[in-house]
From TrEMBL:
It comes from the Bacteria. One of its GO terms (molecular function) is UDP-galactopyranose mutase activity. Gene3D superfamilies: NAD(P)-binding Rossmann-like Domain. Coiled coil: none annotated. This is UDP-galactopyranose mutase.
Amino acid sequence: MSARYLVVGAGFAGSVMARELAEAGYRAHVIDRRPHVAGNAFDEHDSNGILVHRYGPHIFHTNGERIFAYLSRFTEWRPYEHRVRGVVDGTSYPFPINRDTLNQLYGLDLDEAGAAALFERVREPRDPVVTSEDVVLNSVGRDLYEKFFLNYTRKQWGLDPSELKAGVAARIPVRTDTDDRYFTDTFQAMPKDGYTRMFERMLDHPNITVELGVEFDNVRAAEDFDHIVYTGPIDAFFGFRFGHLPYRSLRFEHEYLPDVDQYQETGTINYPNDHAYTRITEFKHLTGQVHAGTSIVREYPQAEGDPYYPVPRAENEALFKRYEALAKEESNVTFVGRLAQYRYYNMDQVVGAALAAARQLID
């Protein structure tokens, strides 16, 4: 009889692992505490027929040809390049900051060399670069930092940029050209039939069973499996033995606007300095859906709730390392994914981590 794997979580990490194990001839029983597959990428048609992302916008982008090809087995794609604008003092500007942002904001007519010279003139050199504040001040200086980054970061993380590791701000580029795409990856697209359908196809295999609305603790005590693939919070797995790892959560406010063809000029608008929410996303930009009305979502960061983002601080990393040491002693458990590895992964990075973990188990 082939080995039985319990896969905890039906998001990217768990679903990719389950599919790889199933194709290798093993049986994978996938559980999820939510009533649906796809994890935070879950999308569905709202009551007005518009495809919405229930847990905020998920824009797929990757430079990994292998990862894109892997997911292409389970979906066709709709080409989509995400664009974002940031509202400062009532005016929207291209974001990430590029040459057009500078020219519009300061009433200038800079070419690429002029934009580079402006950044060089206003930047506040930091050495070493340790925090997110260091990253931004070192790159664009005080004024742009305060207009676009400071308050957005405070809302998003509940912390000052000086309290966050450099990697948070390093994710956001600064450009001297006029490229207004949020991402510059080689592959940028949205699943043509939505994320949920892609996951359903991935989990459609005779060696995979799926059970939803189930808590891990109820299953781990009741059934015997040869190996567990765990994609939930690593601190929860160990009963919070060393205390809770800090996560940032979100509250989503979805709204349908009848008889509004387009609510905003780009898929997402950031509000760094106004409102309690950080951004508004309009889904029809992402999906290309044609509909008489439109649906938007506002995102309100908060401390309590489902864990979305590991909080990147040195003390949190140190706490994670204590849990990671326990995890390494669990020979029959594989920990993979954003929550299990306490990493601020993009979707493609989770797929890559899962494929690598599956290879280790199968080989």
